[in-house]
């Protein structure tokens, strides 16, 4: 019986015509999806542990965040999801008791290196919080805020930048005629979209969202979910959610943290929800605990 010619196999990169067809079809499908670019990691997390005083909240986590994808962080209360999220843009620096070990690389550089300015880092990795927190300023000034702080406002068409961010946040149609009204006068869902507009106005590489819809009603939640999917055409999104259906609906990748700050499984969202590797993850997904 003749053996396959391994050299030819290596050279052609495929074993037969059917394989080639399958690969071409997959590549074509990849190309026709506007979000599909060659997959690359924006953030690489390496052996990350976080402590609050003596309590360890994250245990040696390794993970990568793919560009222009939605990555969901799920797991029971207290398992370290928010701690992990805050580690990515050094928001834990603001908590006295917090201590971080390990590396978080953005574009290959460890954000915990001594020469990294956390404020500049947070412009590259923006954040949207659980409760909408617009500044007590006009809608316009909320969105323009970051550009002004960065000193960019004088060099660009600020009106256009504000409109563009509000459009991207799916809020423009609702506020175009009242840009000078206070951001605080908007509904909760509109306030959250305003906060998203404020975050994207400075063109961050990554947007972190900590349960961005948990304070909103179902209609406002659905708008935020649609918006997140839309945003992932241009931005990388990492979202903490308690809502497993939400994670399944909107994310490409899911990380499951379990008690003690352990990242138990990280994979394609469909794999996590349909066929997880770990029994503990299956038990959590099917509601046996948590
Ligand atoms: N500022 C803090 N000071 C001290 N301990 C903290 C602080 N923040 C979080 N922790 C502790 O770290 C652990 C992880 O908390 P974290 O908020 O990251 O979990 P979580 O998964 O986001 O929880 P939840 O889903 O309830 O928001 C918990 O034991 C929590 O009590």
From TrEMBL:
Gene Ontology CC entries for this record: membrane
Keyword Cell wall biogenesis/degradation tagged: no
InterPro entries reported in the protein's UniProt record: AAA+_ATPase, ABC_transporter-like_ATP-bd, ABC_transporter-like_CS, P-loop_NTPase, PstB-like
A single BP term in Gene Ontology: phosphate ion transmembrane transport
Domain of life assignment: Archaea
Residues covered by the ABC transporter domain: 43-285
Region feature (Disordered): 1-20
Listed Gene3D superfamilies: P-loop containing nucleotide triphosphate hydrolases
GO molecular function: ATP binding; ATP hydrolysis activity; phosphate transmembrane transporter activity
Keywords: ATP-binding, Cell membrane, Membrane, Nucleotide-binding, Plasmid, Transport
Record PANTHER family: ABC TRANSPORTER I FAMILY MEMBER 17
The protein's name: Phosphate ABC transporter ATP-binding protein PstB
Protein source organism: Natronosalvus rutilus
Gene that this polypeptide is encoded by: pstB
């Amino acid at each position: 019986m003749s053996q396959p010619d391994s050299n030819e196999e290596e050279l052609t990169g495929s074993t037969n015509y059917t394989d080639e067809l399958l690969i071409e079809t997959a590549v074509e499908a990849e190309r026709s999806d506007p979000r599909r670019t060659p997959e690359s990691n924006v953030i690489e997390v390496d052996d990350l542990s976080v402590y609050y005083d003596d309590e360890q909240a994250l245990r040696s986590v390794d993970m990568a965040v793919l560009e222009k994808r939605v990555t969901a962080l799920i797991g029971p209360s207290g398992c370290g999801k928010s701690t992990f999220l805050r580690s990515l843009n050094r928001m834990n620096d603001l908590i006295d008791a917090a201590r971080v070990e390990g590396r978080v690389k953005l574009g290959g550089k460890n954000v915990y290196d001594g020469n990294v300015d956390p404020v500049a880092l947070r412009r590259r990795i923006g954040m949207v919080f659980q409760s909408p927190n617009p500044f007590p300023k006009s809608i316009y000034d909320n969105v323009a805020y970051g550009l002004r702080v960065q000193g960019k406002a004088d060099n660009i068409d600020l009106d256009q930048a504000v409109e563009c961010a509000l459009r991207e946040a799916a809020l423009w149609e609702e506020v175009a005629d009242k840009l000078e009204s206070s951001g605080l006068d908007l509904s909760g869902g509109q306030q959250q979209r305003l906060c998203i507009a404020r975050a994207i106005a400075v063109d961050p590489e990554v947007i972190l969202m900590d349960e961005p819809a948990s304070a909103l009603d179902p209609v406002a939640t659905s708008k935020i979910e649609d918006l997140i999917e839309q945003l992932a055409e241009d931005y990388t999104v990492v979202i903490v959610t308690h809502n497993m259906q939400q994670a399944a609906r909107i994310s490409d990748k899911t990380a499951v943290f379990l008690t003690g700050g352990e990242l138990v499984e990280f994979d394609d969202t469909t794999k996590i929800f349909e066929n997880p590797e770990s029994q503990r993850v299956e038990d959590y997904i099917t509601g046996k605990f948590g």
